[in-house]
Amino acid sequence: MAARALVALAAIAVAFQLAAATNYTVGAPAGSWDLKTNYSTWASGITFKTGDNLVFSYSPALHNVLEVTKANFDSCTTAGPIKTHSSGNDVIPLSSPGNRYFICGVPTHCASGMKLDVDTTAATSSGSPPPSGSPLPFGSPPPSGSPPSGSTPSTPTTPLTPEGSPAGITPSGSTPEGPSAAGRLKVAAAGLMGVGMLIAFAF
Ligand SMILES: *[C@@H]1O[C@H](CO)[C@@H](O)[C@H](O)[C@H]1NC(C)=O
Ligand SMILES: *[C@@H]1O[C@H](CO)[C@@H](O)[C@H](O)[C@H]1NC(C)=O
Ligand SMILES: [Cu+2]
């Protein structure tokens, strides 16, 4: 009984953990994968973490997505891409830290601004659930309350424009609130784990 409650609560905690990964629709909310969005401005307002996904949403009749090298990104060279995406709803997992480069392969579109450089930082380990074999003793703080020192801060990078987001790119949606919302979820999940242990001891 108590064990079952613990397992259920652990599953809830894990579900919260998975929900912390974010899907970023490229260009949203003001635009998408189009000819009018400034993608360096768009990306500068987001801290991309490993586990997040990029979602390129566009009409496949008008655009596509080529993942390319930095050299080909800089020169808008569409030949020999690392990977080509053309579904119109391409979900690209940011599975490891580092820079990745995406351009539109339709002639003139890259030079017109359809190019996105994404710098992914390693997600901190602060949110990982405690090992199942060693529950924390009573009274210990939630495991995710404070990230370990030396971990990458989760504050978004400073936008290039002095006034913050330019008009039209309003900071709504999940983007700017992602890290703090995720942090709250982690704390909530940790709290649930604590309740689970109370239940376990009560039985
Ligand atoms: C992200 O998108 C994928 C694919 O559409 C979906 O399976 C997943 O649930 C989404 N995750 C979030 C956190 O929205
Ligand atoms: C995007 O905006 C930045 C900052 O205003 C500017 O320096 C850059 O030239 C713009 N990029 C494009 C492709 O227009
Ligand atoms: Cu295009």
From TrEMBL:
PROSITE patterns: COPPER_BLUE (PS00196), PHYTOCYANIN (PS51485). It comes from the Eukaryota. Gene3D superfamilies: Cupredoxins - blue copper proteins. The keyword Metal-binding applies. Residues 120-180 are annotated as: Disordered. Pfam families: Cu_bind_like. Residues 22-122 form the Phytocyanin domain. This is Phytocyanin domain-containing protein. It comes from Platanthera zijinensis.
